[in-house]
Amino acid sequence: MRRFAAPSLPGLGQRVRLDADVSHHLLHVTLVPRGHRVLLYSSGQELEAELVDVLDGQAVLEARSEARPIQRGRRLVLIAGLPRKPAWERTLRMGTELGVTEFRTFVARHSVAKGDKLERWSRICGEAARQCGRGDLPGVAAPRSLRELLEGLPDRRLLLHPGAAALAPEAGDLALLIGPEGGLHEDEVELALANGFQAAGLGPWVLRSDTAAVAALARYALG
Question: pTM of the prediction?
Fold first, then answer.
C-alpha cells in the first residue's frame, strides 16, 4: 500500500486535504484512483485512508482506520567524513531511502568541503522520505569531531576500508563509518578501531564516497 505525508491525521471517518506537492504525486505520478486506499502518515503515526475527492487540484482522503504508531526498524547510523556537496547530498538522499536513522558527519583530514548547510541537508532528507513513503525522518546534525561522533553508537560498528575483507551481514542495529573523497587518515582509522569498529570491505575497487555509502548500506544493512 502506497504511503503519503499528511499535514495531520484525521479521526476515523473524517477527511483531510493533502498539500499541493503531495497531491500532485498521488494524483498524477502514482495515479491513485478514487476509491483506492493508501497509507497516510504524520508525526510518527499512520492510518489507512481512501481517496474520496479532489478540490482545486488537491486530494481529499477519508480515514478508514484509527491512527497507529509507525513501527520502527533497526537503528542505522551512517558516519561520514564530509565529502564535496554533490556527493554528500546524494548520500543523504539515498541513505534516507535505504533506512538510515541518523547521519553524523565530521570534517576529516582529507575532506575538501568545510562547514555545514544543515537546513538544506534536513530538507533533502525530508524530500527523500516523502518520495519513498517513509514515515519518519532521519536525524542529521552539523559536523562535529570524529571522537564525539563515536559516542552512543550501536554495538555493531563497521569501518569501510579499502582492502579489508568483506564481512557477512547481520541483523540488528548498526553503525557504518566511511571516509571522504581522499579516504580516512590513518589516525582516524586507528581512533575508530580503538572505539570498537571492525574494518569491512566492499570489493577490490576504491569507490567514490557516495557509492561506498550506498554499497555499504546495501551489503551490510539490507542484506
Answer: 0.79
